[in-house]
Amino acid sequence: MKKIVFTRNHRPGIRLLNMILLLCVINLSEAAQQSVSFKVSQKIVNGCQITQIDPINFGTLTIADMRKDRLLSTGELRIKCTPGVNLQILLDGGQHASTAQRRMATPDGKAYLLYNLYQDVARQKPWPVDSPYKPTVSDYANISVPLYAEMITPANAPIAEKYSDVIGITISY
Question: Which site among 23, 131, 141, 145 is 20 to 30 Å from 98 CA-CA?
Fold first, then answer.
């Protein structure tokens, strides 16, 4: 009986396979690399947005309240803008204005109560109809514009009813 001894030289297929695997490992470690870059950008344009409106509300009044010298109320606009804009605010005369006089009306439009808006708490500087107002701005992310109002006490007792008006706001920048 003849004895067969296997040596490395007698297994050429295995040796070839080991060499191929070794070359693959070498090729993987020497794999080519490529680096690229890309641009990320954003353009911000000037702008403003009204973020909150606290309406003016004179509340519920009695005939005794109508004898007071001054009937006052306040509201507020909150605006957010990009820094550095030239903000201007215009308030129109409202839905029921008569020339430059703002008025609240009953739902049927037959009775009116006159009122004025002001730019200052003392109510010395009127806020004219469609006249630009430039608020002082220190924080463009939180611009507060107070609205000061005074209802003109009517000479005669007004009818008991709900009175209202809607003011249009225009902001430019």
Answer: 145
